[in-house]
Amino acid sequence: MDNQPQQKLGNQDDGAFDDLLRSAKVEVPLPGIFQYEVWRRIAAAQESTLMARLARTLEPILALLSRPIAASASMVLMVSAGLWLGSLGMDPVRDGKLAYVASVSPFAQRHQGEAR
Hints:
78% helix
């Protein structure tokens, strides 16, 4: 029997209680370090991306190459490597001038056939 009056009372006062809860404004002060911690977490999340890791890896290399001596040495090395790799694939028989002469001259075709 006691449960019914309390339940009836609770149903009548729900609207007034809801209004009271809506009108209550509680301001909870944030700790002073809160913003610092938020920005630290954001920075840590950005540092763990692949692009950030790649940038951290390439930064010292690019800083080294910005020096004139290192840039000159790397340029000479790359040009030398390109010339060497290019000369490996070039067959002297397949030279453009010789290929033209071999296609036009019947004597060059006969001499090439004997050399093989």
